[in-house]
């Protein structure tokens, strides 16, 4: 019984520690917008990649319900 209480105590302490760390960190903003610019560029690149590698762009035909090969 003591072992179970010890395990739950350690898990509770770890959870409490993580909560304190997250609350202390807060929602502080960066001093510059470099991170936001990087995020926007990656999002734009992901959008371009989705359009470039879409099924109709790759195969030059509309996607069908059935694949040409079965697995």
Describe this protein's structure.
The protein has 71 residues and is mostly helical. The protein has one domain. The protein has helices spanning 2-25, 34-52, 55-59.
SSE layout and pairing:
Elements: H1 2-25, H2 34-52, H3 55-59
Keywords: Membrane, Transmembrane, Transmembrane helix
Region (Disordered): 46-71
Protein name: Secreted protein
By secondary-structure content and strand pairing, the structural class works out as: mainly alpha
Note the run of SSEs as H and E: HHH
What coarse outline follows from CA principal-axis ratios? elongated
Helical amount: 55-70%
Overview features:
71 residues; elongated
Q: What is shown here, in short?
A:
It comes from Streptomyces alfalfae. The protein has 71 residues and is an all-alpha fold.
């Amino acid at each position: 019984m003591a072992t179970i209480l010890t395990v739950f105590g350690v898990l509770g302490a770890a959870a409490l520690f993580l909560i304190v760390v997250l609350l202390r960190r807060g929602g502080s903003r960066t001093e510059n917008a470099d991170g936001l610019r990087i995020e926007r560029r990656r999002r734009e690149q992901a959008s371009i990649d989705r359009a470039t590698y879409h099924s109709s762009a790759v195969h030059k035909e509309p996607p069908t319900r059935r694949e040409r090969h079965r697995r």
